[in-house]
Amino acid sequence: MAFKFNFTSDDLDLEEIDQSNELNSTLNDLSLDEQQAVDKTPCYEYDITTCTLPSAVQADILHIPNVNQPLYKRALGDVKYQMAMQDTLGNEEAEEKKVVNMLDLNSNSDLVRGVYEGGFKTWECSLDLTEYLAKLPKEQISNKRVLELGCGSALPSLFLLQHDSSNHVDVLDYNEQVIQYITLPNILLNTVLQVHASTDEQPEDEEASTEKEKAPEKEKENEDEDEENDEDDEKDGIIGENVTCDAEAELPTEHVPDMLQRISQRTRAFVGDWSGLPAIANCKYDMIVTSETIYSQDALLSLVQTIQKTLKKPDGVCYVAAKTVYFGVGGGVLPFCNLLQETKDEDGDKLVAERVFESDSTVKREVLKVIWLQ
């Protein structure tokens, strides 16, 4: 099932697509898939020490308000380059081909249920959550055992790992390819590797040059379209606006095993349906963080139950960053909070949520603080 969360191709440097055809396809998919069961990938632990890495990683630099140090996020173009260099794209069964197929899905839909859950995108709510965490008192974000559900680029996890070396942060994403090619390289970039600003100048392409020439004309048109542009200014995918320059880091082959061993001492990685995580992780967490995971009502119950089974009592805290409403797919803050009120764990205890952040944008976004009801 394909969902769109109102991003444009410009937001995340994706190729242009036919939005009208996409909307029709998305609506049709929604009506069809509501009647279909989805076979989910069972949860399992990913062996970090087996991660395949290139000799160098290209990254974007993100400057997030309240975060003292920049965060580094692997560029999707670098993933594609790695796939091309591994040169098995002609084999439909090869892992590289699967990754390229997911990147193609990433360009045409935000997620496809049971196949690709959006982990190659960096969601704006993860920026909100990272910014909020950075405002918390040091004792609330230090010496913690943390779990990020639906991690993808894992910006909150990157901040927590970078902020305090005593933090242990586990990550889970539905797709192994996201863990291998995005999440773990991001953790390396922000905790182990020496990252340098790239000195390569990017040539301006013909399209960009043409756009500059048209700028005065477009500026005049924009004055007549204030309402539309206001919405564009507040669109979900501001991640592109936070990228200030390119960066790169070398990964000498002889040092890779030690690097992976180092991050495995502070992080465990899990793949698949999060409902199976509690039995595999076999531990409780001081903090759980998650972004853009309450978009669909179908996923809410398993998410709530996973939080109930993995959040430490009585003082554990969970932060959920999300849009207030996800139009067309039934999820959002209200149904999530209602479910919390209705759902008890095996001990008869309940979780309760309070809003701790709300955006001023047209598309409202929130951060919820979820704790055990005392």
From TrEMBL:
GO terms for biological process: methylation. Residues 209-221 have a biased composition (Basic and acidic residues). Transmembrane segments: none annotated. This is protein-histidine N-methyltransferase. Belongs to the methyltransferase superfamily. METTL18 family. It is an enzyme of class 2 (transferase). Residues 222-235 have a biased composition (Acidic residues). It is found in: Cytoplasm; Nucleus. Its EC number is 2.1.1.85. Pfam families: Methyltransf_23. InterPro entries: Methyltransf_16 (IPR019410), SAM-dependent_MTases_sf (IPR029063). Gene3D superfamilies: Vaccinia Virus protein VP39. Residues 198-239 are annotated as: Disordered. GO terms for molecular function: protein-L-histidine N-tele-methyltransferase activity. GO terms for cellular component: cytoplasm; nucleus. Keywords: Cytoplasm, Methyltransferase, Nucleus, S-adenosyl-L-methionine, Transferase.
